[in-house]
Design goal:
Layout lengths: L3 E10 L8 E10 L1 H26 L9 H13 L4 H19 L8 H13 L4 H20 L5 H8 L17 H11 L4 H16 L3 H5 L6 E4 L2 E8 L5 E5 L2 H14 L23 H14 L7 H14 L4 H8 L4 H8 L21
Antiparallel strand pairs: 1-2, 3-4, 4-5
Helix pairs in contact: 2-3, 2-5, 3-5, 4-5, 4-6, 5-6, 7-8, 7-11, 8-10, 8-12
């Protein structure tokens, strides 16, 4: 029987591990005429089936359970998308706390139900509403980045973003110092040595200018300039990247100059670390150092639980008591919303000379 030439279509896979590439090759062979066509049709169907299987393998089903490497990758994506160091620290802590809770139960799906359970767990632990809402915001961002990286189903991520936060019921009372308490704090932090002059100038800036402790730690000598015959901290970049100019009272400028003269500082950071040998560093320090200075000074003068942000509130209230306009105080503090400034003033509730102090029911000798 005469032999006929035919061409055989053969499917093959790449030899590289992990490479899902499929291809086809044409091989020349000789078959009897009666067997050429059936063999070619059979091989063609085999190639089509193999190619369809390859396409199905390429379309991976979306994940519902995220393992630790996936969570760490998503956390890195979240932190890299944030510009503020404070936000990075807050989100990093919130996500780490959630990952510890999430990994404590094996094979736990990452969905709306799980995030709701986590919110209930935080509520049962008596966390403040602001803390719970911050952690939920970090988890929503984590789910968004995981879906964006292909590590989580977009439908699950959308469900997680619909988890509602906790409503704020009432408002926590802030801590304000009186004029006498402020003077006592300044006197307790003051001294004739280098450390005393630095701490006094630092407290003066907090009380007199109402800066945040991170803003005080980042002050440079060149930031203090004159505008309209008045000393100011020019173009201060505050929270959220907002730029403002802060007036500097004369007594605060005198305290800062006294420290700069004693420390022989003409450029660079204003407030610097001092070691035990009274040697001054060349760079600035962390805002945590300011927290320690305020805590030590308040303990010396008998004030309990005074934080650096309480001095910012005190500056706002003293400005208001001295007749300062609400709009000007808002400019001073750098608030976007005037409602935030009102909370700093404590206008909602008056605790000194409260309305229920003298209502006629108190004893005669009180």
């Amino acid at each position: 029987m005469p032999r006929a030439q035919s061409f055989e279509i053969v499917a093959y896979r790449s030899a590289i591990p992990g490479d899902g590439y499929f291809g086809m090759a044409v091989h020349k062979s000789c078959y009897p005429p009666s067997t050429c066509q059936p063999r070619l049709a059979c091989d063609t169907r085999h190639v089509i089936q193999t190619a369809s299987m390859a396409n199905k393998k390429r379309k991976l089903s979306p994940k519902t359970v995220m393992k630790l490497p996936d969570l760490e990758q998503s956390k890195s994506a979240v932190l890299n998308s944030l510009t503020s160091r404070s936000s990075q620290r807050s989100y990093d802590h919130a996500i780490r706390e959630f990952i510890d809770w999430y990994c404590s139960e094996p094979r736990l799906a990452f969905n709306k139900t799980v995030v709701t359970r986590y919110r209930i767990n935080l509520e049962q632990a008596q966390y403040a509403s602001s803390t719970i809402n911050l952690r939920l915001a970090a988890i929503r961002r984590l789910a968004y980045e995981a879906a964006d990286c292909g590590l989580l189903s977009p439908d699950l991520a959308a469900g997680i973003r619909r988890v509602k936060g906790v409503k704020k019921r009432g408002m926590r009372i802030g801590n304000w110092l009186t004029v006498d308490q402020g003077k006592r704090l300044l006197a307790a932090c003051g001294g004739e040595d280098l450390r005393g002059k630095r701490d006094y100038a630092m407290i003066a800036v907090l009380l007199g200018c109402g800066l945040r402790r991170a803003e005080v730690a980042g002050l440079n000598v060149d930031d203090i300039q004159q505008r309209e015959d008045h000393w100011v901290i020019a173009d201060l970049v505050g929270k959220g990247g907002h730029v403002r100019t802060v007036p500097v009272p004369t007594w605060v400028k005198v305290a800062v100059d006294r420290w700069l003269t004693a420390a022989v500082i003409s450029t660079g950071p204003i407030f610097r670390a001092i070691n035990k040998a009274e040697r001054i560093g060349t760079s600035g320090f962390s805002p945590k150092v300011i927290w320690g200075v305020v805590k030590a000074g308040s303990a010396k003068c008998g004030l309990d639980r005074v934080a650096p942000h309480d001095l910012r509130r005190t500056c706002a209230r003293l400005c208001h008591d001295a007749g300062g306009e609400l709009e000007q105080i808002q400019f001073l503090l750098g608030h976007v919303s005037v409602q935030t400034t009102e909370r700093y003033l404590g206008c909602k509730q008056r605790l000194r000379n409260a309305v229920n102090d003298r209502i006629g029911l108190e004893p005669a000798n009180s």
